């Protein structure tokens, strides 16, 4: 049963589903966008796909969309740059605005803000050419995680188990980013918390636990195999569930996210303490994606989720 009337569907107008793009996550975005487009059309929405990696902003303006659903991941779609263009074009869009999109895409800035607010996140170091890798590995301990702070979908991430491998891991990250982030490795269970809404109305959906083969939740296991197990709702004590949802919503609000998003959380094995990893402001919407899974646990279909997100599309800047 639809959560929106036929009249309300018509009121959404001509809708663009922005997909593809030019980031390292283009392949996933094409899958997400295809799913969203099919779902919206199945609900009677006048929806049209638009690949921002192949078509220009001038062409986007010519389409005269009444609103757009952003199904882009990574740079030039999730990092605030497209959001700024849409503000200039005065096209209402889904998800977070320019500033919060840019902040969430930068894992270093996100950590600085979370720590300032007293929110738990693994200890870290920013690596540059002058960094003393031996001192950093001694401080953070081994193993540690090395990642490009402006990419998603686990692209360019390396788990470093030996100090001798640290430099090579940094080189991998530096090849695709202008900064490198080294992060304390937290041993424990991996979860994600979908958040919908804005400000005081933001709320967490049921928590998803991710159980990947050998604990390796990489790009392949995220999107292209059925080897990863997902448990939703996650099996956790009620108090711990509430705490993880609380810090996820706090993390989302802290950087000004709105509409929808997904917060990744690690639960440390030795003391059951949760740690925030990152916020995704334009999460995946593929057949393996976790926000639709969490919504289903609340009884919301993929199609109704897409419509609900689309209805939140708006311009964030007055003028």
Describe this entry's structure for a reader.
- This protein has 319 residues and is α+β, with helices and mostly antiparallel strands.
- The chain has three domains: 6-94, Rossmann fold (3-Layer(aba) Sandwich); 103-120 and 187-303, D-amino Acid Aminotransferase, Chain A, domain 1, CATH 3.30.470; 124-184, 2-Layer Sandwich (Dna Ligase, domain 1), CATH 3.30.1490.20.
- Helices cover 36% and strands 21% of the residues.
- The chain contains twelve helices and 13 strands.
- The chain has helices at residues 6-11, 26-42, 57-63, 81-89, 98-105, 107-116, 133-140, 166-174, 219-223, 238-254, 290-297, 302-311; strands at residues 14-19, 46-51, 67-70, 124-127, 144-147, 158-160, 180-184, 188-196, 203-204, 208-211, 229-231, 260-268, 274-280.
- Strands 8, 9, 10, 11, 12 and 13 form a six-stranded antiparallel sheet that branches. Strands 4-7-5-6 form a four-stranded antiparallel sheet, with helices on one face.
- A hairpin with a 5-residue loop joins strand 12 and strand 13 (274-280).
- Helix 2 crosses helix 12 (302-311).
- The longest helix has 17 residues, at 26-42.
- The radius of gyration is 19 Å and the shape is globular.
- The two termini are 38 Å apart.
- The mean pLDDT is 93.
- GO terms for molecular function: ATP binding; D-alanine-D-alanine ligase activity; metal ion binding.
- This is D-alanine--D-alanine ligase.
- Mg(2+) 2 binds at residues 278, 280.
């Amino acid at each position: 049963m639809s959560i929106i009337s036929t009249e309300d569907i018509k009121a959404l107008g001509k809708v663009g589903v922005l997909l593809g793009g030019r980031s390292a996550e283009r392949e996933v975005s094409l899958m997400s966008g295809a799913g969203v487009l099919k779902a919206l059309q199945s609900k009677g929405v006048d929806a049209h796909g638009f690949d921002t990696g192949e078509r220009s902003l001038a062409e986007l303006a010519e389409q005269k969309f009444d609103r757009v659903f952003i199904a882009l991941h990574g740079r030039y779609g999730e990092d605030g740059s497209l959001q700024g263009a849409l503000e200039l074009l005065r096209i209402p869009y889904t998800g977070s605005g320019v500033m919060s999109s840019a902040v969430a895409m930068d894992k270093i800035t996100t950590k600085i803000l979370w720590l300032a607010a007293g929110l738990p996140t693994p200890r870290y170091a920013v690596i540059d050419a002058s960094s003393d890798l031996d001192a950093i590995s001694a401080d953070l301990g081994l193993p540690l995680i090395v990642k490009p702070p402006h990419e998603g979908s686990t692209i360019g991430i390396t788990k470093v188990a030996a100090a001798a491998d640290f430099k090579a891991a940094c080189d991998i990250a530096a090849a695709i980013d202008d900064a490198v982030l080294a992060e304390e490795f937290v041993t424990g269970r991996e979860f994600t918390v979908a958040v919908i809404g804005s400000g005081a109305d933001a709320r967490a959906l049921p928590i998803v636990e991710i159980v990947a083969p050998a604990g390796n939740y990489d790009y392949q296991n995220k999107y292209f195999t059925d080897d990863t197990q997902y448990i939703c709702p996650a099996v956790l004590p009620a108090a711990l569930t509430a705490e993880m949802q609380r810090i996820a919503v706090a993390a989302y609000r802290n950087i000004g996210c709105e509409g929808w998003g997904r917060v990744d959380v690690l639960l440390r094995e030795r003391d059951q303490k949760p740690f925030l990893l990152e916020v995704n402001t334009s999460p995946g919407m593929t057949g393996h994606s976790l926000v639709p899974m969490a919504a289903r646990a609340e009884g919301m279909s993929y199609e109704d989720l897409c419509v609900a997100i689309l209805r939140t599309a708006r311009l964030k800047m007055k003028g």
